[in-house]
Amino acid sequence: MAKWGQGDPRWIVEEREDGTNVNNWHWTERDATSWSKGRLRELLVGITVENEAGRCEISELKQVEGEASCSSRKGKLIFFYEWNIKLGWKGILRESGTKHKGLIEIPSLSEENEVDDTEVNVSKKKGDGDILKDLMKTAGTAKVREALGDYLKALKTEFTMGMILPTKAMAVQELTVKRKLSQNALQIQASSPVALGVRIPTVALHMTELFDTAIEQLYRIFTVKDLVQKFSKSPAVLEAEKGGKFQMFDGNITGEYTELLTNKKIVMKWRCRNWPEEHYAVVALNFVPTLEQTELQLDCEGVPICEEENMKFCWQKQHFEEIKGLLQLTTLNG
């Protein structure tokens, strides 16, 4: 039997607070089926194509059967997905105003084939209007494949957030880079006592987005647990009060509310799981009423410089765009 601290390093537990899946060696799996069904609906329904003859639109997702998952082993991600999808489309001829309907069938979207090789079959109910069917078979099919490609990109990026956890070796490497970046600043301050630890280079972000909803509704989406779970498509923990904690996206995002002014402003301590331990950014959301819309102004300070693009992606794709999808769905159901 190996002595304490000796043996195969794959099985040695690092000094991590969570103490799980050390060095990303063990097999972990996350079910992407429910998330995928929602994302496929968002990406496919509403696609439009038109030309001088007419206009077509994918109007509904009639069927989405199959499953998807992502597994992690030895620090590598392995994806499995297999879908049978049926879509309804409708079109109108410009000259006559005649309306037509049809189907789009995708019998096998899977990891075994490239998106450009995925079979997409277009059909139309009996009658004239074949020119609309041709439009869907050409421009429509191209847009469908583009949407399927966007789904796979999202599956391999935003859905997998947090599955590959930082290892001790990665942390040491990152600290080495940060020490070099801050070396000049430390030399300038050489005459002053030097604090223990490493100063993390950070950046500030400013983003704005318009939402077609009342200011009260947008504020609720950030402070009501059920609404947060709907736009994030994952369980959430939410205590929307000063000093209250929050947790989103399967624990990948955590923080604390530091200020809440109803329908006006939310300020949070905010961090992503893979950031340096105990490092938080400060996120301020300002809700500004405009004509029939609400402008959301986001100001964020303290984002690790190496996480700037990920932070922008997180807010633009996983917050703003998902919230707009939720608002649109709420409007349609209303």
Write the layout of secondary structure elements.
Layout: E1 28-31, H1 33-44, E2 48-50, E3 54-73, E4 76-93, E5 99-110, E6 121-124, H2 130-156, H3 168-188, E7 202-211, H4 215-223, H5 225-232, E8 237-238, E9 245-248, E10 253-261, E11 265-272, E12 281-290, E13 293-304, H6 308-333
Antiparallel strand pairs: 1-3, 2-3, 3-4, 4-5, 5-6, 7-13, 8-9, 9-10, 10-11, 11-12, 12-13
Helix pairs in contact: 1-2, 4-5
Summarize the structure.
The chain has 334 residues and is an alpha+beta fold.
Care to describe what's here?
This protein is an alpha+beta fold. It has six helices and 13 strands. The protein has helices spanning 33-44, 130-156, 168-188, 215-223, 225-232, 308-333; strands spanning 28-31, 48-50, 54-73, 76-93, 99-110, 121-124, 202-211, 237-238, 245-248, 253-261, 265-272, 281-290, 293-304. The strands form two sheets. A seven-stranded antiparallel β-sheet has the order 7-13-12-11-10-9-8, with helices on one face. Strands 1, 2, 3, 4, 5 and 6 form a six-stranded antiparallel β-sheet that branches. Strand 9 and strand 10 (253-261) form a beta hairpin. Helix 4 crosses helix 5. The longest helix is centred in the middle third of the chain and has 27 residues, at 130-156. The protein is globular, with a radius of gyration of 24 Å. The N and C termini lie far apart (66 Å).
